[in-house]
Amino acid sequence: MKQTITRISSAALLLALAASCSRTEQVAPSQQPTAATVNQDATRDSNLAMGNPSGAVTDATNSPNNYLMTKTQYTMSYSRDKGKPNWVSWHLSSAWLGSTARQDNFAADATLPSSWYHVGSTSYSGSGFDRGHNCPSADRTGSVADNTATFLMSNMMPQAPTNNQQTWAGLENYARTLVGQGYEIYIIAGSYGSGGTGSSGYATTIDAGRITVPSNCWKVMVVLPEGSSDASRVTTSTRVIAVNMPNTNSIGTSWGAYRTTVDAIESATGYNILSAVSSTVQATIESKVDTGPTS
């Protein structure tokens, strides 16, 4: 009788343990996939996936003013004589974003050819123009190294404070809002022309003539749902946001007021901004002015 009771007790215990394990296995999988699927398609893709707008090359001797610089965080065409980038191209998805604080460690870019003038952290001091990021700090918060790269002076352009801190910043913030909605974005930004108006008035150059103050700051954003093979997924219905802002302190603060076409920016700069996209698709999307939401 005692053996029978023991067998029954043991069987009951085993059944209880089995049930407990079964509940644990059911709970754990229901939690983990949730975390895994939030950004299941978000990856760090090529910063130059939409093409090389100016055909920049890594040739300091023959192409000093269209010099290709490829970093993990962004790719650019740099102009030695203007002391600033012609354009900077980068990919933005949730895979690039984290909790790293803004480093504010502005520094000269040591990867520029050694014989060139290296714009320094204080080169804009007293000019009335901000050290305006092309690729913004808040787009690269995945690590200290990523954020630090955005503070290299090769990524800066002399930007009127109102433009940089309000109008331009508003569009940067909106881009990250789209990422939070499940999109990834390819962004190409740059500047052209000569002569802007900062907080100290009009100027064509700063830093004893070594840095050109642009007349205009422009940006193109290609907005895609998270996915892969990105250039081939751009269609005639893909949202493309293009802006062209005067580099002046009297600029309006709503970025939406400065929307234009990619065609217009290409006409002003001579670039082929979305060269990796089908020419048929380009013909449609580059001629449209975006009319989507601005916040």
UniProtKB/TrEMBL annotation:
Keyword Disulfide bond: no
Region (Disordered): 45-64
Segments forming domain ENPP1-3/EXOG-like endonuclease/phosphodiesterase: 71-280
PROSITE patterns: PROKAR_LIPOPROTEIN (PS51257)
Lineage, uppermost ranks: Bacteria, Pseudomonadati, Bacteroidota, Cytophagia, Cytophagales
Organism (species): Hymenobacter negativus
Pfam families recorded: Endonuclease_NS
GO terms, molecular function: endonuclease activity
PANTHER family hit by this protein: ENDONUCLEASE G, MITOCHONDRIAL (PTHR13966:SF5), ENDONUCLEASE RELATED (PTHR13966)
Protein name: DNA/RNA non-specific endonuclease
Signal sequence range: 1-27
Occurrences of domain DNA/RNA non-specific endonuclease/pyrophosphatase/phosphodiesterase (ranges): 70-280
SMART domains, alphabetized: Endonuclease_NS (SM00892), NUC (SM00477)
Keywords: Endonuclease, Hydrolase, Nuclease, Signal
